[in-house]
Amino acid sequence: MKHTLYVGLDTDSRHIDVAVADGLPHGEVRYWGQIANEPAAVDRLIKRLRKDGRALVVCYEAGPCGYGLYRQLAGKPGVSCQVVAPAMIPRRPGDRVKTNRRDCLALAKLLRAEELTAIWVPDTAHEAMRDVVRQRSAARADVTRCRQRIASFLLRQGIRYATGKPWTKRHRLWLGRLEWAAPAHQLMFAELLDALDRTQAHHDRLVDHLRELVPQWSLAWLVAAVQAMRGYRLVNAATLVAEIGDPRRFSSPRPLMAFLGAVPSEHSTGDTIRRGAITKAGNTRARTALIEAAWTYTRPGKAPPSAHHAPAVRAIAEKARHRLSGRYRRLIARGKPPNVAVTAIARESLGFIWAIAHAAADAAPRR
Asked: Is the pLDDT of residue 267 over 90?
């Protein structure tokens, strides 16, 4: 550790504040200075810090600046870089002063003490696929907002659609035939319908892009395997895989459950044990896809997985179908609310997804 220099970086769009910490037991922690957030300036920084041949361990917080700095540093000899989770950084309760200088000093000190939690950094291809998945999710949210605006306006006018389910093709034709006495209402409602059509078309194009891009992805085999489970089709499976990556990087299903915040919170002391709702830590998009898929187990089971999946994958999916449906019925019989029961089977379904990833990986080279 005496021959290692620990470097904490606090980044923003234009600048990087740098702090360094010498190795223990008597190493000094000091503020080094500020540089421009540019590749050439980062190269000069690394060259100056390594002028005496010491190895560098560098870290910075995950944020809107992305992983460009990590990829630049990871390829340099003698340099190890970590991107740390901001929510997992220890902070003192009474600390009410936050500056870039103090943040980089704290990062360097905590990095040397091994108190930071590094996140998984995807490669460029995986990050690009994840951006497409997230854009599709944002487009879906835009469609929902457009529908809510239209529904709210109709509710204020006392108009109800009573001949079927809303947001079908027949419902859209009915919306287009509505007429309003006030010219302002007529123009405004036409704009609402136009915004809905444009956002829906945008969402549909992104789904088509997913269908085109997923077969070329390195994790296409995993997206196909996850679809053996109930509740997973292309969009849901691609969302889950894009957000968590390959589940095989977890040693067992339990760390995967904790990674998605699907484990119960706990506040116990002495002989008193208090467990509460799930922690909801980690990736919100992946947890949402997981919960949505789990609701399908509340209904009667469908046919077994199709024959194009590997036999081992089909066996795991069939076991999940029986086990998760049965557990939901038992939890409801014990008086648990439906949302609590669905959350419980969603957490357990991660164990089956982890097993499917291992089984599908063995069959992937033969496919």
From this structure: no
**HEC profile for the chain?**
CCCEEEEEEEECCCEEEEEEECCCCCCCEEEEEEEECCHHHHHHHHHHHCCCCCEEEEEEECCCCCCHHHHHHHCCCCEEEEEECHHHCCCCCCCCCCCHHHHHHHHHHHHHCCCCCECCCCCHHHHHHHHHHHHHHHHHHHHHHHHHHHHHHHHHCCCCCCCCCCCCHHHHHHHHCCCCCCHHHHHHHHHHHHHHHHHHHHHHHHHHHHHHHHHHCCCHHHHHHHCCCCCCCHHHHHHHHHHHCCHHHCCCHHHHHHHCCCCEEECCECCECCEEEECCCCCHHHHHHHHHHHHHHHCCCCCCCCCCCCHHHHHHHHHHHHHHHHHHHHHHHCCCCHHHHHHHHHHHHHHHHHHHHHHHHHHHHHC
Query: Would the pLDDT of 55 be above 90?
Result: yes
Q: What is the pLDDT of residues 119-169, one digit of tens each?
A: 999 999 999 999 999 999 999 999 999 999 999 999 999 999 988 999 999
Q: How many domains does the chain have?
A: 3
**pLDDT grade, residue 49 (50/70/90)?**
very high
Query: pTM of the full predicted structure?
Result: 0.89
- Asked if the structure places residue 118 within a domain, the reply is no
Does 108 lie in the same domain as 153? no
Please indicate, yes or no, whether residues 296 and 317 belong to a single structural domain of this protein.
Answer: yes
Can you give the residue range of the structural domain that contains 322?
Answer: 220-366
Residues 256 and 200 in one domain: no
- Quick check: 217 pLDDT over 50? yes
